[in-house]
Amino acid sequence: RKSFFSYPFYFHQDTAWITGCDFLPQLKCVVAVTERTVIVWDYKSKGSQNNCFIIKPMENGLLCVCTVTMSDHLAKDNIVMGDDKGYVHLLTVTSDHLGLKQCKGKKESQLQVLDPKTFNIVKRKLHDDWVVKVKYISDLNCFGSCSSDSIHSFVLDDIKRLEDNLPVKEFSVPRGVNAFTYCAKAKVIVTGG
Protein backbone atom coordinates (compact mmCIF):
# COMPACT_ATOMS: atom_id res chain seq x y z
CA ARG A 1 0.00 0.00 0.00
CA LYS A 2 1.40 3.39 -0.99
CA SER A 3 0.70 6.72 0.63
CA PHE A 4 1.52 10.34 -0.18
CA PHE A 5 1.94 13.14 2.29
CA SER A 6 3.55 16.54 2.47
CA TYR A 7 4.84 18.77 5.23
CA PRO A 8 4.96 22.58 5.08
CA PHE A 9 8.24 24.23 6.09
CA TYR A 10 8.22 27.78 7.43
CA PHE A 11 11.46 29.66 8.06
CA HIS A 12 10.89 32.56 10.46
CA GLN A 13 8.17 34.16 8.33
CA ASP A 14 10.32 33.83 5.16
CA THR A 15 9.02 32.09 2.08
CA ALA A 16 11.36 30.36 -0.34
CA TRP A 17 10.93 28.12 -3.35
CA ILE A 18 12.21 24.58 -2.93
CA THR A 19 14.33 24.22 -6.07
CA GLY A 20 15.30 20.56 -5.70
CA CYS A 21 14.98 17.50 -3.48
CA ASP A 22 16.25 13.93 -3.19
CA PHE A 23 16.35 11.00 -0.77
CA LEU A 24 19.35 10.25 1.48
CA PRO A 25 19.48 6.43 1.50
CA GLN A 26 21.94 5.97 4.38
CA LEU A 27 20.44 8.54 6.77
CA LYS A 28 16.90 7.76 5.58
CA CYS A 29 15.99 11.44 5.31
CA VAL A 30 14.83 13.82 2.60
CA VAL A 31 17.16 16.59 1.44
CA ALA A 32 15.82 19.74 -0.21
CA VAL A 33 17.42 23.01 -1.28
CA THR A 34 16.02 26.54 -1.35
CA GLU A 35 17.64 29.88 -2.15
CA ARG A 36 20.46 29.73 0.42
CA THR A 37 19.37 26.82 2.58
CA VAL A 38 19.77 23.04 2.73
CA ILE A 39 16.93 21.22 4.51
CA VAL A 40 17.35 17.70 5.88
CA TRP A 41 14.02 16.28 7.02
CA ASP A 42 13.61 13.09 9.04
CA TYR A 43 10.30 12.23 7.42
CA LYS A 44 9.89 9.11 9.59
CA SER A 45 9.09 11.24 12.64
CA LYS A 46 5.68 10.34 14.03
CA GLY A 47 2.84 12.67 15.04
CA SER A 48 3.91 16.04 16.37
CA GLN A 49 7.58 15.04 16.43
CA ASN A 50 9.15 16.40 13.25
CA ASN A 51 12.93 16.51 13.06
CA CYS A 52 14.06 19.08 10.52
CA PHE A 53 17.59 20.42 10.12
CA ILE A 54 18.24 23.71 8.35
CA ILE A 55 21.79 24.30 7.08
CA LYS A 56 22.16 28.02 6.38
CA PRO A 57 23.21 30.48 5.15
CA MET A 58 24.85 28.97 2.08
CA GLU A 59 27.09 31.31 0.11
CA ASN A 60 25.15 31.22 -3.19
CA GLY A 61 21.60 30.44 -4.30
CA LEU A 62 21.07 26.67 -4.59
CA LEU A 63 19.16 25.47 -7.64
CA CYS A 64 19.44 21.67 -7.75
CA VAL A 65 20.49 18.70 -5.61
CA CYS A 66 21.15 14.97 -5.87
CA THR A 67 22.51 12.19 -3.69
CA VAL A 68 25.76 10.38 -4.44
CA THR A 69 24.76 6.73 -4.16
CA MET A 70 28.22 5.18 -3.83
CA SER A 71 28.52 5.56 -0.04
CA ASP A 72 28.74 2.27 1.86
CA HIS A 73 29.02 4.12 5.17
CA LEU A 74 25.77 3.53 7.05
CA ALA A 75 25.77 6.87 8.85
CA LYS A 76 26.88 9.16 6.01
CA ASP A 77 25.46 10.56 2.77
CA ASN A 78 27.16 12.72 0.13
CA ILE A 79 25.08 15.38 -1.59
CA VAL A 80 25.87 17.25 -4.83
CA MET A 81 24.31 20.70 -5.34
CA GLY A 82 24.43 23.28 -8.11
CA ASP A 83 24.12 27.04 -7.57
CA ASP A 84 23.40 30.30 -9.37
CA LYS A 85 27.10 31.23 -9.74
CA GLY A 86 28.14 28.10 -11.67
CA TYR A 87 29.55 26.18 -8.68
CA VAL A 88 28.95 22.51 -7.97
CA HIS A 89 29.15 21.66 -4.24
CA LEU A 90 29.81 18.35 -2.51
CA LEU A 91 28.34 18.24 1.00
CA THR A 92 28.91 15.34 3.40
CA VAL A 93 26.21 14.83 6.06
CA THR A 94 26.56 12.32 8.90
CA SER A 95 24.19 11.16 11.62
CA ASP A 96 26.54 12.88 14.11
CA HIS A 97 25.96 16.23 12.38
CA LEU A 98 22.24 15.83 12.74
CA GLY A 99 22.22 14.16 16.14
CA LEU A 100 19.53 11.80 14.87
CA LYS A 101 20.12 9.27 17.64
CA GLN A 102 19.70 11.90 20.35
CA CYS A 103 16.50 13.28 18.78
CA LYS A 104 14.70 9.95 18.58
CA GLY A 105 13.59 10.02 22.22
CA LYS A 106 12.22 13.57 22.13
CA LYS A 107 8.51 14.00 21.57
CA GLU A 108 8.32 17.62 20.46
CA SER A 109 9.09 18.92 16.99
CA GLN A 110 12.76 19.68 16.38
CA LEU A 111 13.74 22.50 14.00
CA GLN A 112 17.48 23.00 14.26
CA VAL A 113 19.50 25.60 12.37
CA LEU A 114 23.04 24.39 11.64
CA ASP A 115 26.04 26.44 10.50
CA PRO A 116 27.44 25.34 7.09
CA LYS A 117 30.96 25.80 8.53
CA THR A 118 30.45 22.71 10.71
CA PHE A 119 30.11 20.52 7.59
CA ASN A 120 32.64 19.22 5.08
CA ILE A 121 31.66 21.16 1.92
CA VAL A 122 33.85 21.40 -1.17
CA LYS A 123 32.91 23.37 -4.25
CA ARG A 124 34.28 23.97 -7.71
CA LYS A 125 33.27 26.46 -10.39
CA LEU A 126 32.43 24.41 -13.47
CA HIS A 127 30.04 26.69 -15.37
CA ASP A 128 29.74 30.40 -16.17
CA ASP A 129 25.97 30.43 -15.68
CA TRP A 130 23.38 28.79 -13.39
CA VAL A 131 23.79 25.06 -12.75
CA VAL A 132 20.31 23.86 -13.70
CA LYS A 133 20.72 20.13 -13.00
CA VAL A 134 23.10 17.81 -11.17
CA LYS A 135 22.89 14.02 -11.16
CA TYR A 136 25.07 11.18 -9.94
CA ILE A 137 25.21 8.30 -12.43
CA SER A 138 26.27 5.26 -10.40
CA ASP A 139 26.72 3.04 -13.49
CA LEU A 140 29.48 5.39 -14.66
CA ASN A 141 30.78 6.35 -11.20
CA CYS A 142 30.42 9.96 -12.38
CA PHE A 143 28.42 13.06 -11.65
CA GLY A 144 26.91 15.23 -14.35
CA SER A 145 26.06 18.92 -14.24
CA CYS A 146 24.61 21.20 -16.89
CA SER A 147 24.11 24.88 -17.53
CA SER A 148 22.84 27.26 -20.20
CA ASP A 149 26.50 28.32 -20.53
CA SER A 150 27.51 27.82 -24.20
CA ILE A 151 31.15 26.99 -23.41
CA HIS A 152 30.91 24.85 -20.27
CA SER A 153 27.50 23.38 -21.05
CA PHE A 154 27.76 19.84 -19.69
CA VAL A 155 30.29 18.28 -17.32
CA LEU A 156 30.61 14.52 -16.75
CA ASP A 157 33.40 13.34 -14.48
CA ASP A 158 34.49 11.58 -11.30
CA ILE A 159 33.20 13.10 -8.05
CA LYS A 160 36.87 13.55 -7.00
CA ARG A 161 37.17 16.37 -9.57
CA LEU A 162 35.14 18.55 -7.22
CA GLU A 163 37.95 18.29 -4.67
CA ASP A 164 40.89 19.10 -6.96
CA ASN A 165 41.78 21.39 -9.86
CA LEU A 166 42.43 18.74 -12.49
CA PRO A 167 40.68 19.27 -15.85
CA VAL A 168 37.12 17.95 -16.16
CA LYS A 169 35.45 16.26 -19.11
CA GLU A 170 33.12 18.89 -20.50
CA PHE A 171 31.10 19.53 -23.63
CA SER A 172 30.11 22.77 -25.33
CA VAL A 173 26.62 23.17 -26.78
CA PRO A 174 25.30 26.43 -28.29
CA ARG A 175 22.93 28.03 -25.74
CA GLY A 176 23.79 25.31 -23.24
CA VAL A 177 22.13 22.21 -21.81
CA ASN A 178 18.97 22.38 -19.68
CA ALA A 179 18.43 18.67 -19.00
CA PHE A 180 20.17 15.31 -19.35
CA THR A 181 19.68 11.65 -18.53
CA TYR A 182 21.56 8.38 -18.90
CA CYS A 183 20.27 5.10 -20.36
CA ALA A 184 22.28 2.18 -18.95
CA LYS A 185 20.92 -0.30 -21.51
CA ALA A 186 21.93 1.80 -24.52
CA LYS A 187 24.98 3.30 -22.74
CA VAL A 188 23.93 6.73 -24.00
CA ILE A 189 23.64 10.15 -22.40
CA VAL A 190 20.90 12.32 -23.86
CA THR A 191 20.93 16.10 -23.40
CA GLY A 192 18.30 18.71 -24.12
CA GLY A 193 18.74 22.44 -24.51
Automatic annotation (TrEMBL):
Keywords: Repeat. InterPro entries: WD-EF-hand_domain (IPR051242), WD40/YVTN_repeat-like_dom_sf (IPR015943), WD40_repeat_dom_sf (IPR036322). The keyword Repeat applies. This is WDR64 protein. It comes from Pelecanoides urinatrix. The gene is Wdr64_0.
